[in-house]
Every structure is written in C-alpha cells, then in structure tokens.
Design a protein that fits this description.
Blueprint (H helix, E strand, L loop, with lengths): L2 H11 L7 E2 L6 H8 L6 E2 L2 H10 L2 H17 L1
Helix pairs in contact: 2-4
C-alpha cells in the first residue's frame, strides 16, 4: 500500500471533525508537500528533519526550514 493510500484510508476512517496529524517518514519539504496536497491534513510532525540544524547551532537554517514548511502547509 502506498503512502498516499494509507493517508487516504486513515482520513476516511477518522472523518467527523477530527484533526489528523502525520509524522512518520516525513524527512523533507517535498515529503510534506506530497502528503498534504489536496488533503485535509491537520498538521505534520517533522522533528527528525530539524535535528541537523539544532546539532550545528544553525538558527538561520532552522528558521528558513520552518518558514518554508509553513508555506507548504498554507498553500495546501
């Protein structure tokens, strides 16, 4: 079963005002873009993608990634 099929199945089972958040397997902005495209996804968890920025103390990279992520979510 593809990731898209799993997402669609979960959303169909949880309809009725419940917000569904996804997180496992999301490593990039493109992963998030594919997941949320055309779907009513409540949110995403992408902690692993942020670890390199934290390890390196790269606050600017961290901010840029989160800003771009926000754009992906707002555009969906």
């Amino acid at each position: 079963m593809t990731r898209g099929a799993v997402v669609e199945r979960m959303l169909s089972l949880l309809r009725g005002g419940r917000e569904v958040n996804f997180g496992f397997g999301l490593r990039s902005l493109e992963d998030v873009r594919k997941l949320v495209s055309g779907r009513d996804v409540g949110g995403v968890a992408i902690g692993t993608a942020l670890i390199p920025y934290v390890r390196e103390g790269d606050l600017e990279g961290f901010r840029k990634f989160v800003t771009e992520l926000r754009g992906v979510l707002c555009d969906s």
